[in-house]
Amino acid sequence: MADANYFTCTLGEAARLKRKDEKAKTWTTVVELIDDQAERNPDAPALGFATFTHLKSTQVFRHLLTFRDLSDTSKHAAQILSTHLPKEPKSLKIGLLSSSSTEFVLTWLGLMRLGYTVLLLAPQLAPPAVQHLCETLDIRHVFVDDIYEYRARGLSNDIEIIRIPSYKDDSTTDDLGQTPGISETAYICHTSGTSSGLPKPIPQTQFGVMGALYSFPGKNKPATFSTTPLYHGGFPDCLRAWTSGASIWFFPEGQAPITGANIIRAIDFARAHSPIPVKYFSSVPYVLQMLSEEYGGIEVLQTMHLVGVGGAALPPAIGDTLVDAGVNLLSRMGSAECGFLMSSHRDYAKDKDWQFLRAIDDSRLIEFEPRENDLSELVVKPGWPFLIKTNREDGSYATSDLFEPHSSIPNAWRYHSRADAQITLANGKKFDPSPIEGSILASTKSLQDVLIFGSGRDYAGVLLFPSSSDISAHEVIDSVWPHIDKLNSDSQTHTRINRTMLVVVPVKEGQKPLEKSSKGTILRRQAEERYSDEIEGAYSNTSSSTKILEGGLQKAVQDCFEQVLGRQVEPDQDLYRQGVDSISCIQIRKLLEQICLSSEDGRLPLNVIYDQGTINSLVEYLERANSGDNELNVDPDESDLNLMQALAEKYSNFDPASHDTSSMVGSVVSSSTSGVKTQARQNREALGEKKRLAQMAMKIVQDPNDRPTRVVLTGATGFLGAHILHLLREDSRIERIYCLLRADGPFAAQKRVSDALFQRVLPPLEPHQDKVVCLPCDLTQKDLGLSEEQLREISTSTTKVIHSAWAVNFSLRLNSFEDQISSTKNLINLAEEAGAKFIFVSSIAAVSDSTARPVPETLSHDPKEASPLGYSRSKWVAEQVCDAANKKQDSPLASIVRVGQLYSNESGVWNTTEAYPLLLSTSKITGCLPDLPNEVLNWLPVEQAAQAVIEIAFTHSKGLKTPVYHVLNPHITPSWKDMLDWLAASNEGPEFEIVSSSEWLERLEKALGDENDHPSQALLGLWKRSYSRGDMNENAVDDQESSVFEVAQTQKVSASIRDVEPLSRERVIKTWKWVNENIKG
Asked: Which of 255, 302, 497, 693 is at 20 to 30 A from 371, Cα to Cα?
C-alpha cells in the first residue's frame, strides 16, 4: 500500500500512524482545531469558494479565508447569530438549510460556538422530510439562505424559519458571555431517504469527524478542490485538510450550475487565487463523467496529483478511460456510521486497478465475511476508531456492502453491491442493479435514464428512457445492445439481460422519468409502481409476430438461442456444456413457446432444454409437438444406456501413449493439426522422456508409502469436500493439501475455499498458512490447467488424490456430464504419474436401482442399476473408468467410495442443493410434507462421512482389483414418520400438514406453477417417479430389517462407519431450523 497523505488516509491508517507518533497533534473539538491553527498558522489558507462568476463584490463573501480569518469571522458570526436566538432555548439542536457557501461554514461554526448542535439539511429534501427530521430531534429553529428559503415554506408553524444574517461587518467581536459549552456532537447529517422511508438523523461526534484523524506534519501541503456540497460529505473533506494545516476549495453552489465547463472555470479560479498549488480533486461519479465528456476536462484532471471519487459507483468504462489517459484516479469509501474506511491509493505508475480498495490488514478493525456468489460483506469491528452504529452483539457493524476480491492482490476489494438494495429473482439469486444501470447510461448519449426491474421474476429486464423524442425505440435498443451484450458476457448468469427484455419508454418534454433521492439514487419502489404496466407487459407478451415458414423451424430455434445468449451455439453439441445456464433456459423456453409452437396455448415442459440436450434434438421434439404427436415424452432410457457404455469405453483407454509424462509435464502438443512432427516437438518429447525417467528413478529410491503425505483434493468448496479439507488440515500426518478448483487466480481460489469453510461454520483459511495450497485449474485439460512448475511439484510429491468435485445438477442429462468424466480420467493419470492412491467419491445413486439386496460393495457392470438421473449415470460411468485404470496395475490404483445421503454437520448446516433438504423446504410453499412410509433416516452426518473418506484413503487395499466402499448410515431408525412428528412439535419452522405423497405432489406442482422457480423445481420429475404411487405400503419399513446397502467392507477399514449412531431428535430439530432459514420458500 502506498504511503498515506491527508487526502487518502483512512481512519484505520490514522490509528496506526498515531500509535507510531506519540507527538501527533490532537484536538477535542472542531472549534479548538480552528483556533489552534489560527495561532500556529494564522496566514495559511484554510477555506475558499471559487466564485468565478462576474458578480459585484458586494454579492459574495471573500473567496478565500485564512485560518485566522476563519477563527475570527466564526466568532463574529456567533455574536450575530446569538441576537437571532432566544437566550434560554428549549432545544440546543438547530437546523441549517443552505447552499454550500462561506456563510454555511460560518453559520455552522458560529452556532457550534454558541453550544448548538447543527442538523445539516440537504436542500433536495421535501418539506415533509425536513419536518420529520425536525420533529425527531426536537428542533424549533431552522436557518435558511436566500437560495433555499422556499424549501422551508411547507414546515409547520412550530418551527421558526430564520434567514442567515450577513457576516460582512468586520467590527470587533464582543465577548459571547456564558454559553452552554461546545457539544460533543460536531453536527448531525441524515440518510438520503429511500423508496421505503423518511430520512434518519446520524449524529457525528467531534472525535469521529476530527479527533480520529491524523495530523500530518509539515507545511504547504497541496490544496484540495471539492465539488461535494458541505451538506453531502464536504465537511469530512474540510476537516481532513484542516487537521493537517492544508486548505480546501469548493465549487460555488447556487451561483452557477455544475457543468463540465463551469467546473473547469472554478478550478482555474481556485488555482489563480490560491497561494498553494491545488493538486487534489474530490468528486462524485457524475462530475467525473461530465469532465470526461467536456473539452479539456481530462486534461485538467491530468494536472492533479490525485483525483478521488466516492459516494456512488463510478461506471468502470469512465474510470478506465481516465486511468488510461494517465489520471491518478482513486476510489474512496466511507460512511456516516464509520468515517473514512478504504481507498484505492496505490503506486499509480504500476498499479491501474483503481476500483480495488486496499483495506488495512488488521482484523481488530475490519473484516470481510464470506457471502454467496464469492462475495464478502464488509464488517467494521469494535476496534475501529469511529463507530456510531452497531448491529451485532460483539459491537461490530455489518455494513451490508458486498465486495469481490482481487484475483492476485491480497486484501484488495472491489465494491459489488448492497446486500439490502438488491433485486432478488424468483430463484433467490440477487444482484445490485445500480452499477449496471450506471454502466448502460454511460455507454450512450441516447438515454437520459435507465431502470432495471425483475424482483420476484425469473429474470431481469430494463426500462430505457430516451434523451430525445426524435429517437425511435429501435434506434435506442440498437445503440445500447452492444454494451449490454458485453456486460452479459462479463457478468454472472442471473444478471444477464435478454434483448427481448429491453423496453423503451417515451418521455414527455420536460418530464423527469425517474424520481431520485438527494444522493441521486433511484427511488425504486415508486418507479416500479409508476411503470408497472410497462414492466408487466415485458413479461406477459406471449404473442409473436414471427411466422415460421415451412422448413424454417431449425433456424427459428437457433435464433431463439442467439437472441437470449447473444451468440450462436453448435446445433449438435450439448447445450449445457456450451454455457446455456438455467436462467437462459427459462428465457429460451418462453421464446420457443411464443415463436415455435403452432398451438396458441402450447406449453413446453419446464426442463425441455436440458432434457433434449442439443438444438437438433429440440427441433425434432418441436416438430413432433407441432404435428400433434402425443408421444412427446419419448423415453430416452435406451439411448442413455447406450451412451453410458459408449462413454465408459471412450474414457477407459489408459494406453501409456495417451498420458505419458510428456503430455503431463511440459508443453502439451496437439497432433490433430499435423501428421508431421516438427524438430521442436521432437525436442520437447525427448525432454519429457528424460523427465519421466528421472521421476521413475526418484520413485524407485523413495517409495510413496515412505514419502510425506501430500493430498490433491478436488471439490473443496462443496459440502463434503469442505469437511474433508477441514479434517485433512487438522491431521498431523498430512504435510500439504493441494486444492484444485476453478478460479481467476490463486488469491481468488483461496478465497473461494476459505468462504466455503466459513459458510459451513468451519474455520476459514489463515491468510499466511502454507499447508493448504489453492490452485486455479481446468480439470478437463490433460495438464489440468496448471503451470508446468505446479504440475511438476504435484506429480512428483502427491501420495493421495481425493476426487470429490462433481456438478450437482439434477436437471442435466448424461451427456452434459462428459466434462466431469474426462476430468476423472485426467486425475487418474495424475495419480498414476505420482504413484499416488486415487479415491473417487461416487454416489449410491450409481447403483440405487440395483435389484440385489443388499447392494454389494462391488463394481456394477449393468448400467440399468444407476438411477435415471444424468448425475447418477455419470457416476456409474466414472466408476467404470476407475476400474479400467486398475486393470493396468499390479495393485489397485483407484478406490470407489459410494456416499449415501449426507446430513448436516454439528452446527446444523446442510446442503441447499440436495434432494432431502429441498423436499423439507417445500413445506413453506405447500403447507404440507409427505408421509413416506418407505423412507428411513439412514442419513450420515457429513463430518463422519468426511472422516470415513480419509480413513479409506489411508487404507492399503490388497487382493481387490477395484475396492468399493459404501459410506452411509446403516441404521434404519428413526423413521420418516418419527422425523415429521419431531418437526411438527418444534417451533423452528412453519406449521404443516402431513399428507399422502400424491397430495403433496399435487400441491407442490400447483405451487411451483409455471412462474415459480423454487430450487426444488428440478427435482419435481424425480419425485413424481419415486412418490406418485399413492399411499405406499405402510408396512414397508417394518419389513426392512437391515440397510439396503452392504457396509461390511467399509466397516472393516473405517471406525467412523463402525461407530455411527442413528440420528437424534436434537440434531434433526437443529437442521430443520437451518433449512427454514437458508432455503428459499
From this structure: 497
Q: Any residues with CB less than 8 A from the CB of 572 and at least 6 apart, and which?
A: 614, 615, 616
What is the arithmetic mean of pLDDT over 82-101?
Answer: 90
Label residue 311 left, alpha or beta by phi (over 0 means left) and psi (-120 to 50 means alpha): left
Q: What is the mean pLDDT of the segment spanning 562-586?
A: 84
Reported pTM: 0.61
Q: Which CA distances in Å does 657 have to 262, 647, 650, 685, 689? A: 72, 20, 15, 12, 12
CA dihedral 544, 546, 552, 554 (to 10 degrees): -40
Classify residue 211 by its DSSP letter. Answer: I
Give residue-wise pLDDT tens across range 724-745.
999 999 999 999 999 999 998 8
Domains in the chain with CATH codes:
57-205 (3.40.50.980), 444-512+522-540 (3.30.300), 553-634 (1.10.1200.10), 636-666+686-897 (3.40.50.720), 900-1081 (3.40.50.720)
Q: Which amino acid is at 807?
A: A
Handedness of CA 209, 213, 218, 220 (dihedral sign): negative
In the chain, the N- to C-terminal Cα span, in Å, equals 45
Give DSSP secondary structure letters for 667-721.
----SSS-SS--HHHHHHHHHHHHHHHHHHHHHHHS-GGGSPEEEEEE-TTSHHH
Alpha-carbon torsion (694, 700, 702, 704), positive or negative: positive
What pLDDT sits at residue 150? Answer: 83
Query: How many CB atoms are located within 10 Å of the residue 83 CB?
Result: 7
Backbone angles phi, psi at 750, to 5 degrees: -65, -40
Contacts of 1060 (CB under 8 A, 6+ apart): 940, 941, 944, 969, 970, 971
Give me the helix-helix angle, 788-797 and 679-701, nearest 10°.
Answer: 30
Residue type, 653: N
Residue 651 has pLDDT above 60, yes or no: yes
User: Cα–chain-centroid distance for residue 708?
Assistant: 38
Q: Which of 375-384, 604-613, 750-759, 1045-1054 has the lowest mean pLDDT?
A: 604-613
